[in-house]
DNA sequence: CCGCATCCGAGTCGATACTG
DNA sequence: CAGTATCGACTCGGATGCGG
């Protein structure tokens, strides 16, 4: 089974890759936290209390891999690791904020649609 | 430069909900197809050949539930079902296209970052 | 033609325990 | 402090078969 997309446009693949990243359960939460400035691992963990250590680590790794986040290790004892957005990460905030603003602005319309839908679908 | 998304607030949930929707494997593909105009179920199925009937059905249901897509049944024989974007769905195209444009524009930077990352991580 | 029901494998998420 | 390792629960997506 190949992840090949029959959709001809090459660009489509990149769009989907990006969506897969930011569509992750924690990605946006982390990126928006970091938009305020560098944070330590434990700060992020404390700030997003519901996240598990594992998911925080792996999400940060993914973001680092794609060049949105920079990881800075200070080999002291105890060790210290800071994370911050790269230029690319900051650039991403633009469209991301736009989407976020849209979601906030239109949440009522979505909510209405959901209630209308449920009203018409007995059971389910 | 400053985060426009209010963290720790109710808004955050709506943003996440939206991302969960459009982060789905097929959502964007379907929405972009429908942006050109109404389409029948079988047209969509044919156009996105790799999608399974199940996923097409369930994704359309999700989009309908959130008010992005309207479903019109013509009870003829054989039956006929058309799907089209609602006004809300069309509005969503704005931020969605912005994100898509960003992905296309910055694909090289992401690609570079990935290669740089891989070069520094032997094995893994 | 449309799409629901069911089963199943693969990947994801998360709690817990352990290391430098 | 900042992770890694492991294992189970859960969810997603695909295949197939049936029904209106």
UniProtKB/TrEMBL annotation, chains A, B:
Gene Ontology MF: a single term: DNA binding
Keyword tags: DNA-binding, Transcription, Transcription regulation
Domain of life: Bacteria
InterPro entries, per database record: HTH_HxlR, WH-like_DNA-bd_sf, WH_DNA-bd_sf
Residues in HTH hxlR-type domain copies: 12-111
Pfam families cross-referenced by the UniProt entry: HxlR
Family annotation (PANTHER family): TRANSCRIPTIONAL REGULATOR, MARR FAMILY, TRANSCRIPTIONAL REGULATORY PROTEIN
Name listed for the protein in its UniProt record: Transcriptional regulator, HxlR family
Species per Swiss-Prot/TrEMBL record: Aquamicrobium aerolatum DSM 21857
Lineage: Bacteria, Pseudomonadati, Pseudomonadota, Alphaproteobacteria, Hyphomicrobiales
């Amino acid at each position: 089974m190949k992840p090949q997309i029959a959709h001809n446009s090459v660009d489509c693949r990149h769009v989907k890759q990006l969506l897969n990243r930011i569509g992750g359960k924690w990605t946006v939460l982390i990126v928006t936290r970091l938009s305020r400035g560098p944070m330590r691992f434990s700060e992020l963990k404390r700030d997003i209390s519901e996240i598990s250590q594992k998911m925080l680590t792996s999400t940060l790794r993914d973001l680092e891999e794609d060049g949105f986040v920079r990881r800075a290790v200070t080999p002291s004892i105890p060790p210290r690791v800071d994370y911050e957005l790269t230029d690319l990460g900051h650039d991403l905030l633009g469209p991301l904020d736009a989407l976020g603003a849209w979601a906030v602005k239109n949440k009522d319309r979505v909510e209405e649609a959901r209630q209308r839908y449920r009203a018409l679908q007995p059971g389910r």
